[in-house]
Design goal:
Structural class of chain A: mainly alpha
CATH topology of chain B: Alpha-Beta Plaits
Strand content of chain B: 35-45%
Radius of gyration of chain B: 15 Å
Strand content of chain A: under 5%
Number of strands of chain B: 6
Low-confidence stretches of chain B: none
Order of helices and strands of chain B: EHEEEEHEH
Order of helices and strands of chain A: HHHHHHHHHHHHHHHHH
Largest sheet of chain A: none
Helix content of chain A: over 70%
Shape of chain A: globular
Number of helices of chain A: 17
CATH architecture of chain B: 2-Layer Sandwich
Mean pLDDT of chain B: 92
Oligomer: heterodimer
Radius of gyration of chain A: 20 Å
Largest sheet of chain B: 4 strands, antiparallel
CATH class of chain B: Alpha Beta
């Protein structure tokens, strides 16, 4: 099995086609809500499927996975923030917003990893799916806390109380936290998992054409669109600068290695499951976190965090990261 | 002859995550209604393709009697001082059937 062979999966190839479509300036335009519809389907299908399997899984192991997901969700953004401040290329507010993206997860990357594992015939546990649902929110909370702390430091630096009015007031904290926890993709994923777990198995089997058989086709469409969206960000690279681009490549490696350690040593997962946890650690959110940061950290520039998460880290993970984490998992486990 | 009455049209272009705040401002400052359109474009926040939740913009229109304009602008300036990227402009418009613009939303 060569590395190239691993890339020759329709889903990954469609991602590449999306990038090419944009680069050659094709006139192809997808309907505005397509990505949203496809991601709703993908979250629902993967949630039902995972819930169905989790319904028969060990509850203790599931709780363990949740605990580690929360730990990862809180730790990764702090590491990202530290790394970003070391680069000295972004201010604290931008660092806080970017870090939140890297602590959260990308369902698109996770699903691509599942396509990759399926293609290679590697089995994987259902627990990483719970972690996917859990890891959406903690990083948003950490991002908010980092931003609020940075705001206070900046206010002190400016020598005054002038900035007390800046940022979310106390009353808004509750609504921001509420938003982080009730984010649409979290609700959809957890809700579908619950339905999959408690539904009668016979009735679930009737759903298999919907959640299994067309799944990879829908993923191809989704990745095709995301390829176009990623390529749209390419022209922003210059604005972001080489150092931040490097961060977008280094941070997933850091998260991926930590994910492998958690998957293998802390959770005792097999090669497939460990690869998926690595992907969770490595991926950066581009659906749930950006709107939250726009609302809560207006001082940060969206073109920075969107370019990094969607234009750099997502393609890197899809093309290079996933096979790399898989090989690392094989090395560590064997 | 039609009876046209002068009013102020406030137009705001911003990220769609601010929609609720903008609606609250219009409501609290006595606007009679508002209209929201999906928008896309590019500017200080990079390209807003409108394809993802992450980069969707809105264009928010509200028509007001002149005496209610200052309150709305105060609130918008407060948002801008928190560094929310807003594009705001005010135009003079003439409306037909001006009565409805005097009645604040419930």
């Amino acid at each position: 099995m060569s590395a190239l062979n691993n890339l020759l999966i329709p889903a990954v190839l469609f991602f590449a086609l999306g990038v090419i479509t944009r680069l050659i300036k094709s006139d192809l335009r997808l309907p505005p809500d397509l990505a949203k519809m496809l991601s709703i389907y993908l979250l629902m299908a993967i949630g039902l499927h995972g819930g169905y399997e989790l319904g028969r899984a060990d509850l203790g192991a599931a709780f363990n996975a949740v605990a580690w997901a929360i730990a990862l969700g809180f730790t990764l953004p702090l590491m990202g923030y530290g790394l970003l401040m070391l680069t000295r290329r972004v201010d604290r507010m931008n660092a806080a917003a970017i870090a939140a993206h890297y602590g959260s997860v990308s369902a698109g990357t996770f699903l691509t990893a599942i396509a990759y594992l399926d293609n290679a015939g590697i089995a994987y546990e259902a627990y990483p799916l719970i972690m996917l649902a859990v890891m959406e929110s903690p990083a948003i909370v950490v991002g908010l806390l980092l931003a609020s702390w940075s705001r206070q430091r900046l206010a002190v630096q400016d020598g005054g109380v002038a900035s007390i009015d800046n940022g979310p007031a106390n009353g808004q904290w509750r609504s921001l936290l509420h938003e982080a926890m009730t984010n649409g993709s979290v609700v959809l994923l957890i809700g579908s998992m619950a339905i999959g777990a408690i539904s009668a198995p016979a009735s679930m089997e009737k759903l298999f054409p919907f959640i299994d058989e067309i799944f990879m086709g829908v993923l191809c469409l989704f990745l095709f669109e995301m390829g176009m969206e990623a390529a749209r960000r390419l022209r922003e690279f210059r604005r972001v600068g080489a150092v931040l681009v490097a961060f977008g490549l280094v941070m997933p490696l850091v998260g991926g290695v930590i994910g492998i350690a958690v998957g293998h040593w802390a959770l005792g997962l097999g090669i497939g499951g460990t690869t998926l946890v690595a992907v969770l650690g490595a991926s950066a959110s581009y659906i749930a976190v950006p709107p939250a940061m726009r609302l809560a950290v207006p001082e940060a520039n969206p073109s920075f965090y969107l370019t990094l998460a969607l234009g750099i880290t997502f393609p890197f993970n899809v093309v290079i990261g996933i096979p790399l984490y898989h090989h690392l998992a094989v090395l560590v486990i064997n | 002859m039609h009876r046209l009455v002068p009013e102020k049209l406030v137009t705001i272009i911003s990220t769609d995550v601010l929609e609720e705040r903008l609606v609250a401002i219009a409501r609290n400052r006595g606007a009679s209604g508002y209209t929201i359109l999906r928008a896309r474009g590019a500017g200080s926040s990079g390209e807003q393709s409108g394809m993802l939740d992450a980069d969707a913009n809105i264009k928010f229109h509200v028509i007001l009697p002149t005496d209610r304009l200052a309150g709305v602008l105060d609130d918008l300036e407060r948002l801008m001082s928190k560094r929310y990227p807003l594009t705001v402009f005010v135009s003079d418009v003439a409306v037909l059937g001006s009565d409805k613009f005097d009645k604040p939303m419930g």
